[in-house]
Amino acid sequence: MVLSANKLKKLSFLVYGLGLSGKSVIKFFKKNNIKNYSSWDDEKKLLSKKKSFNLANILKKVNYIVLSPGVSLNKSKNKNKLKKYKKKIITDIDLLYLFKKFKKSIVVTGTNGKSTTCKILDHVLKKNNFRTLLGGNIGTPALELNVKKDSIVIIEASSFQLAYSKFIRPDYALLLNISNDHLDWHGNMQNYKDAKFRIFKNQKQNQYAIINNELKSYYLKKNFLGKLLVPKLQNYQKIKSKIKNLYLKFSINDENMSSVYTLIKLLKIKQSLFLKSLNTFSGLPHRYEVFLRKKNCVFINDSKATTFQASKLALKNSKNIFWIVGGLPKKDDKFNLTNLKKNIVKSYIIGKNVSFFKNQIRNKLNYKIVKNLNNAVRQILKDIKISNLKDNKILLSPASASFDQFLNFEHRGDKFKKISRFYARRIT
User: Fold this and answer.
1) 304: alpha, beta or left, given left = phi > 0 and alpha = psi -120 to 50?
2) At what angle do helices 373-387 and 409-424 cross, to 10 degrees?
3) Which CATH number does 5-90 carry?
4) Best CA proximity match to 394, nearest among 407, 379, 408
5) CA 191 → CA 88, 183, 195, distances in Å?
6) What is the pLDDT of residues 393-408, one digit of tens each?
7) What's this model's pTM, rounded to 2 decimal places?
8) Fold annotation for 96-278
């Protein structure tokens, strides 16, 4: 369903939450001369020109409440009022589907790897002369994309956005994986899982659902209409040897790349052209980023790994790992190190919540409490000198959020790279 400009102007909206996406919604309304809207933020309060503002009354009267993905119905100061009108809640991505015309859409979600997957898709399609636009939870807000009728829109969708979505209907929907994350926001694992599966809710029979085998049975129970495709990992691994890009040689990317390969075949891109495109792809920062090699040491920045499941992918990928872990743990996260211990020489705990990580790895790994990144890197280089091992991997993969010591995961990763480069100069 796409609404005309005249229909849009007859509707009323409340923009609730004024972060990046909320501001993009207001910008979209102004650009399209949509005047019948108000705005509200729990912290900033009223950001409307009206002198009097009764939130309960506005919620009752408006056609739609455009909720920022940062606002949780379980935590908002006005949660009871919002829950009363939950049927009216939509997101900025819903508005994209309601009011903009484009050729096709690809929506990607999952706990781990969705940003890299979106970037790879955008890169490969552009290299093969598709007109693509990339946005959503990555980079440009959905409503700020310069969409044309011949555009293929690639959207990274978070569970926060999907939880409230009502009109998202991708031509190609990719659900990469689901593991324990954001439970403080969703309340429990079931709510989180259901939010992710909303990516398929509105699909028609001529649209495609690409999902890994572990989630297939849950998809089938839902009786969705989209054509289900389950990528076969071995199909991608058969061609992987032909890829010259070092970043994609790591097995950490294989599962998600099998989904990419499945979609590429649907889009009828030749295998030879697909492989050629991949050779010019540059990996994203902070996602298993090999940024420095010095003598017998390889430094890897995996700061984006904010859960154990994300770190597990990195820990499976190498041996002789000196693992930096710690920060703010995610709710109900548990570390299963059974098949990983052999890859880890020693772990180094940073951050303020030392007891959680100590309890997770005690009696399983050799560890040291170092409190911060500076101490971690310095201690690791001392231990490597004593151990006399070759091909050592110095891995920051914290399995936790960063906010106890850093602004965000990017800040944490950049700090690690700076410290590593400083101490690496001393390696002889």
Assistant:
1) alpha
2) 40
3) 3.40.50.720
4) 379
5) 19, 8, 6
6) 999 999 999 999 999 9
7) 0.92
8) UDP-N-acetylmuramoyl-L-alanine:D-glutamate ligase (3.40.1190)
